[in-house]
Fold this sequence. Notes:
By secondary structure, the chain is of the alpha/beta class. The chain has helices spanning 14-17, 95-98, 138-144, 147-152, 171-176, 209-215, 217-222, 239-250; strands at residues 21-33, 36-42, 54-60, 66-72, 81-87, 106-110, 127-133, 155-162, 190-196, 231-236, 265-267.
Amino acid sequence: MLESGVPVGLARPPQAVATRFTIESVIAVRHWTPRLVSFRTSRAPGFRFTPGHYTRVALADADADLVWRPFSVVSATYDPHLEFVATVVPGGQFSDRLAELHAGAGVRVDKASYGFLTIDHFAPGEDLWLLASGTGLGPFVSILRDPATWAAFRTVVVVHSVRHASELAYRAEIAAIPHEDPTAIEPERLKYVPVVTRESCPGALNARIPQLIEGGQLASAAAMSLDPRRSRIMVCGNPDLGLALRRQLTARDFHVNRRGTPGQLAFENYWQGTP
Length: 275
């Protein structure tokens, strides 16, 4: 996903991680904006993940010191590569290295994947809502690319909120999903709702997601209601958005997934505190 959330312990001593990562090669780097970048790497044959999972990636400096950050996986489970998307924060310990990343460079990738932002934790439903801010879109692109998603839900609504229209990453890739194998579906089953908060953008809503839910604009744009009986909702983005949506949606009788107790809400529970 992103240079997004981070669990406790950003870096691990070399002796603790030496057997827990593989060294992968950067295949391509894409600069969506000066501060938004995605990068694609090779993938170890044994690396497995569920769409919505994140893994840990490390970049080294000239002294071979490693800085680890968690990133959601953007690519599909069947892709031969791994893809991640991140925000570059000038002066950040990881970001400074990320800004210089180029094809052919080496990165460390944890052998394991983690997380509970997966569709198998939900109670059965008909509609899946994916609510993202910024690079929080990353895991949702992987989920959209999974045939299991389309087998489990009749309709998927992708809501991507950014500050500026140039940050609407993966817009074309999302639009192509209904027309590509193995996710070929009726195009009307996928609804894409862009949200741009700091400038006017044709075709995009212009307020924060909680305000759009409260005012009914989001349901209107998707031509669907948020209904606990049929809607299942995933949220990935900055902590303020997550907290606001948790309060708002639980007040509407949505319940968060718990271990052993499927619900209607799922949140990504990590965030990048140190760039």
